[in-house]
Amino acid sequence: MAQIFRAKKSTKPIRHIEVLIDSMDHQGRGVARVAGKVCFVEGALTGEKVKGQVLQDKSKLLEATVVKVLTPSPERVPPFCEYYERCGGCSLQHQQLDAQIETKQQAVTMLFAKFAGIDQLPWQPCIRSEPQHYRRAARIASLHHKQSGHLQLGFREKQAKKIVEVSHCDVLVKPFDTLFDTLRNKLNEMSAFKSVSHIQLCQADNGNFVLLRHTRAISDEQKQKFVDELKEYVVVFDDGETAVSYARTPYYQLANFGLKLSFTLANFIQVNQQVNEKMLQQAVDWLELSGSEKVLDLFCGVGNFSLVLAKQSNKVIGVEGEAQSVAMAKQNAQTNQITNCQFYRFDLTESIASAPWFDPHADILLLDPSRPGALEVLKQLPLTQFKKILYVSCDPVTLARDSKVISQAGFELNKVGLMNMFVHTSHIETMALFLRR
């Protein structure tokens, strides 16, 4: 007879500790010392005494979460979101906004000292946006509950796969912030939509797009009924097999540069429009291009930096690993009548020995990698040919690590600044300018 395995419920007793937080790490967690171990405490601020529940007890470190704040920091503020204690979207709403930025700056400084051996950083003012309703793109989790027959809709719980059902989200742009109940009700009215695995929201300059990813077929009649119910939105369906059809292609404009960039919802774009526009202007200001330079833009996406810099320089070569993004970047260059910009698809983690895009005369290098950073390509490039290197980072650890390679190649860190792309979260976006010595 077959035996069914059932996991035993944990009998480990809940363990609490009281600690004094002496700093915060790059993930926004409080850092303390307990019996010779480093202790990371989620939800704690520098200078606070807290009671925490131990989540992990490893050989050299502890991980815990705040149960009670015994001595609060002056930086502590009430979170503005009613779902904050459960939702995994934001993690720093309990800290004043200015203090959030200062904490992130301190974290980057410590990481540069640790990984790059650079102790003094030439900090520039942080790029900011509105603290609420700043996020133009987001992914909503969806799950069909078999017992109740109800389709859950919301965000993932902190450190869990459970869904926190929300009715609003104050960091999303309007009118996405209050769309949840409408979506939930409409989806639950039609049984065919129980296979919706998640929903993607994106505000473009030509509409508010709602993309439904589903794992089973939905009839055209049912799709049309749903579209008719959400007339003020541009609804798109994706079954993961057939090509996604758009009633109109989304785009965003960069008014300061006279550019219009089209994209699909499969492409990466910066979710904070205000910060993106200021970031591009800062890149132009820092690089101080004269018009004669040749720019190599690695991890170029749909051409966000490439097309802006093409207007400021002699030539731009953009390289990206995603085929859809390269195709869209080429289209954007054509749409904007930019002829001094070339785009190539290439995996930048591979050998560049025979790369068709490499130009030995390029003198400006721009890097905008994803979280893993740009180490593989930096180790291969003849960095000494460049006069300036601009590194746009979404992970301070890999930025600090890669900065060591750049520094050892004969460059000096000239400017560094935060870009608060994801307000009230622990995500750290940084721009760093290196000049050849």
Commentary on this structure:
This protein has 437 residues and is an alpha/beta fold. It folds into three domains: 61 residues, Nucleic acid-binding proteins (OB fold (Dihydrolipoamide Acetyltransferase, E2P)); 203 residues, 3-Layer(aba) Sandwich (Rossmann fold); 102 residues, OB fold (Dihydrolipoamide Acetyltransferase, E2P) (Beta Barrel). Helix content is 21%, strand content 30%. A seven-stranded mixed sheet has the order 17-16-15-18-19-21-20, with helices on both faces. A six-stranded mixed sheet has the order 1-5-6-4-3-2, with no helix packed on it. Helix 5 links the parallel strand 15 and strand 16. Helix 1 crosses helix 8.
